[in-house]
Amino acid sequence: MSVLVWIEQIDGQAVHSSWEVLGKGRELADSLGSPLVALVVGHGVEAVAEEARGYGPDTVLLADDPALERFRLQPYAAALQEAIRRADASVILASATTNGRTLTGLVACQNQAGLAPDAVDLRIEEGKLVAVRSVYSGNILSDIYFDTDQQFASVRPRSFPAPEAGEAQGAIQPLPVPVDEGQVPEKILEVKPADTSEISLTDARIIVSGGRGVAKDPELGFKLVSELADVLGAAVGASRAAVDAGYIPYKHQVGQTGKTVKPDLYIAAGISGAIQHLAGMGQSKVIVAINKDPDAPIFERANYGIVGDLFQVLPALTKEFKKRLGKEEKE
Amino acid sequence: MRTLVCVKRVPATGAKILLTPDEQDIETRFLGFTISPHEECAVEEAIRLVEEHGGRSTVLTLGPPEAAEQLRDALAMGVDEAILLETDGSDWDPVATARALVAAIQAEEAANGPFDLILFGNESADSGGYQVGIRVAHALDRPCVAGIKGLTVQEGQLEARREIPGGWEVYQVPLPGVVTVKEGLNLPRYPSLRGRLRAKKAPIQRLQPELQPGGPAKVRLKVPEEQGVETQILGHGPEAAPQVVAILKQLGLVQP
Fold first, then answer.
1. Is residue B255 part of a domain?
2. B231 contacts on A by Cβ (under 8 Å)
3. Which listed residue, of A176, A209, B120, B160, carries a Cα 20 to 30 Å from B97's Cα?
4. Is residue A277 one of the residues assigned to a domain?
5. Domain check: are A151 and A226 in the same one?
């Protein structure tokens, strides 16, 4: 028996939320009294396997093959199956990225095992995994109990704190995965980097979001939002109202049908706090709201509020942060 | 080409949701219903592919008799045919749902020829299981690309564009295949008046699927405790900025 965690990598970089799952995996393995095994799949990704050793696994399995360079469902599923066999894994976990959800989905289906997709919490009861899911946009929590020997879960990013990297432990063991390229239906034709200066919303520790409150000058409004985000190393978010009005592209949308986020700090500027938006960001650790309307619903959820016009408050905040964080430009 | 789009009737978003007394399901009596935005895009794409390449599009759902409403919405947008796998309204888990869909797809393909492309939404808007599409693809032994935001079909091959952290990838898979699509793939059209009138009268094929024992996981639901938050108003206007910064710094939330 073991707890197996798939460590996702893209272009040789570990996906950060994988470490959160590995950290939680250590806890689960300890309460089961079974080993923790990390799985790294890719090509030329020894560095990721080496990095994984710092997060407490007993073993790191490394499936390294040119055919495994980028995520393709069929060969990655074969690698995970091979790892499950080798590690005799009973609890199989991945971060709930698109790839993590798809991979656990397929392999659980192949093995006719229980699957808890997009779990927000995990625990062990009577020697088995219990996964908590948040459904109906956070309105309902659902405990998933398994009655199969193999128990699969994907874990929503930022559900658990990222562990501190410690002293490397556990040996790296090669995991050969035979891939017959002729049998793989998926080919990757092209990979294009987007603007990498942007921080992804789901990974961000801090998010600064703008809403309908920017209406009188949307361009300036989101410029002010971005400037504050830059100083804080934060991602830029937006409410659905702002996205629908065309002030900012959809990829920035937080809340129902946009992204669900759980940063340490969420700064909402000119966002009234519609229930859909609150569902998407309500689990942030600390929420700061800036709104002209002292009765805006966002103030019922925020930890701290400033009643005021974002066009005045945001620049003041940016300036103050620059000063206090020692980022003031030299004049 | 033949396209099939699978949709799910779900409670309209934003409503406060209550549980049934046995805590096994949600109370649906007071809710409005819809399909998810991902699925609206899947319906639109199923129609567009047929407009571009010729053929026929079909919409399929598993749900209570009232799910015919969602099928008629798709017909009004321009889908050619609709199939309803009628349940008594109880909740079918992803395993049972996928099984019933697969049985219906196989029967339909045996009668009228294969579907070149089967489209799903990336996840349903209610239970968000991210897996029915993958399960159907597996059962039919067809390739599946999940989470796609762009697709083109040519010469029996599908090119699917997918976002990844820091960029995007283009996959190529042979047809027949399965995709799960994300909102943003296209801009779904509004149904025309003519479409609506046509959809009102269009026949819906109703089948009674057999509920096979569900998936290997049990569920217990609960409503999360209300998180009482004490909001502290730190001030009015830009003068409040220094205090906000001081508090966030003190909490260790912002670092130089």
1. no
2. 289, 299-305
3. B160
4. yes
5. no
Residue B129 gets the label, from left (phi > 0), alpha (psi -120 to 50) or beta, of alpha
Q: What is the pLDDT of residues B24-83, one digit of tens each?
A: 777 766 677 888 889 999 999 999 999 999 999 999 999 999 999 999 999 999 999 999
Q: State the smallest CA–CA distance between residue B214 and chain A in angstroms.
A: 11
What's the gap in Å between the CA of B103 and the closest CA on chain A?
16
Q: Kindly determine whether residue B145 and residue A186, on different chains, have CB atoms separated by under 8 Å.
A: yes
- Residue B137 structural domain: 2-207
Give domain status of residue B229, yes or no.
Answer: no
Chain B residues near residue A100 by CB distance under 8 angstroms: none
Supply the angle between the helices A310-324 and B241-250 in degrees, to the nearest 10. 50
User: Do A257 and B216 make contact, defined as CB atoms within 8 angstroms?
Assistant: no
A188 CB neighbours in chain B (<8 A) are 169-172
Answer with the residue of higher pLDDT: B224 or A47. Answer: A47
Concatenate the DSSP letters of all residues of A170-216 into one string.
Answer: SEEEE------GGG---EEEEEEE--TTSPPGGG-SEEEEE-GGGTT
Share of chain A above pLDDT 90, in %: 66
CATH of residue A25's domain is: 3.40.50.620
Q: Please report which helix (H) or strand (E) contains residue A221, including its range.
A: helix A218-232
Closest CA in chain A for residue B222: A141
Task: Please report whether residue A28 resides in a domain.
Answer: yes
Question: Is there a single domain that holds both residue A178 and residue A220?
Answer: no
Q: Report yes or no on whether pTM surpasses 0.95.
A: no
Q: Which residue in this structure is represented by tokens 């066999």?
A: A85
Domain span including residue A217: 206-324
